[in-house]
């Protein structure tokens, strides 16, 4: 298993969020979020369903606008930059969605080639092929190159989704519920892969989850989101040894469901 925290550069912040607020009508979802993420760091955002985890990563990726506060990603104020600058920024951010969102009508190779051919038109066929092979090797699925998504298991599809993201060499990875719907062994493989990606590509990552094993395994730091605010932040052990009563319901939720 990869060692956590090995490459964190605490002199370089890749994401800086201050006093972030976001409402939808009367639903005040984010109520004053502060968050700093360093180069090479895996930060887990842990929270129950509906607490605004997805809203937070959509704001980081510029897909939703904050009502108040600042969000700086890789030196860009995401609420203020032009659409073109936002597009360039998004190329440096990799998303791993709950559904792996592969194109069923394309082979694994074609799925991986797709973002490269669309965004890096100067590459030769040989370079594209090399990039595909390297990304597949990074997720341990070189042998699936000519298969169709329908022929893969849920865990394999998730890995291919991550490979398709890695092919663009992102500086930041955003993982939305990476272990949702996977059995415990496959979940552990995905957790290990998240750590391996961090080490191999020196990415900074936000992992949003309500899976405590995922949080413990992948998080250099864990931030607990409750009622629109971070109520605890630290190592997994710090957070869960804190005795904070507000985390109790979260624990119960995790072990009962
Ligand atoms: N585009 C939107 N318009 C209106 N309300 C929204 C929108 N996006 C999210 N919300 C609301 O914001 C709240 C937080 O949603 P969000 O998807 O961030 O939750 P979450 O913490 O990611 O939950 P889950 O773990 O179930 O995915 C919910 O009440 C949701 O209904």
Helix content: 25-40%
Could you say how many structural domains there are in total? 2
CATH architecture of the largest domain: 3-Layer(aba) Sandwich
The coarse silhouette is: globular
* Poorly predicted ranges: none
SSE string, helices as H and strands as E:
EEEHEEHEHHHEHEHEEHH
Rg is 18 Å
The total count of strands amounts to 10
CATH fold descriptor of the largest domain: Rossmann fold
In terms of DSSP E residues, the strand content is 25-35%
Strand order across the largest sheet = 6-7-8-3-9-10
Let me know the average pLDDT.
Answer: 89
Overall CATH class of the largest domain: Alpha Beta
The helix tally amounts to: 9
- What's the story with the biggest beta sheet? 6 strands, mixed
- Structure ligands: adenosine-5'-triphosphate
- CATH homologous superfamily descriptor of the largest domain: P-loop containing nucleotide triphosphate hydrolases
Pfam family, one: ABC_tran
InterPro entries: AAA+_ATPase, ABC_transporter-like_ATP-bd, ABC_transporter-like_CS, P-loop_NTPase
GO molecular function, one term: ATP binding
Keywords: ATP-binding, Nucleotide-binding, Transport
């Amino acid at each position: 298993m990869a060692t956590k925290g090995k490459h964190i550069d605490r002199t370089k912040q890749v994401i800086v969020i201050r006093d972030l607020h976001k409402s939808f009508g009367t639903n005040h979802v984010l109520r004053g979020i502060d968050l700093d993420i360093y180069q090479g760091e895996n930060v887990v955002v842990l929270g129950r369903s509906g607490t605004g985890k997805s809203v937070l990563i959509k704001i980081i990726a510029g897909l939703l606008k904050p009502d108040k506060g600042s969000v700086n990603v890789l030196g860009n104020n995401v609420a203020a930059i032009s659409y073109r600058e936002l597009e360039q920024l998004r190329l440096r951010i990799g998303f791993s969605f709950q559904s792996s969102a592969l194109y069923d009508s394309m082979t694994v190779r074609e799925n991986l080639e797709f973002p490269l051919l669309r965004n890096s038109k100067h590459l030769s066929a040989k370079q594209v092929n090399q990039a595909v092979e390297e990304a597949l090797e990074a997720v341990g699925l070189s042998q699936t190159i000519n298969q169709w998504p329908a022929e893969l298991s849920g865990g394999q599809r998730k890995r291919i989704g991550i490979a398709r993201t890695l092919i663009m060499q992102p500086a930041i990875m955003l993982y939305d519920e990476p272990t949702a719907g996977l059995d415990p062994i496959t979940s552990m493989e995905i957790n290990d892969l998240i750590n391996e990606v961090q080490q191999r590509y020196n990415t900074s990552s936000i992992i949003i989850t309500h899976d405590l094993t995922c949080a413990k395994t992948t998080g250099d730091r864990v931030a607990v989101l409750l009622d629109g605010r971070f109520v605890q932040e630290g190592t997994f052990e710090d957070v869960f040894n804190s005795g904070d009563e507000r985390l109790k319901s979260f624990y119960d939720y995790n072990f009962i469901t």
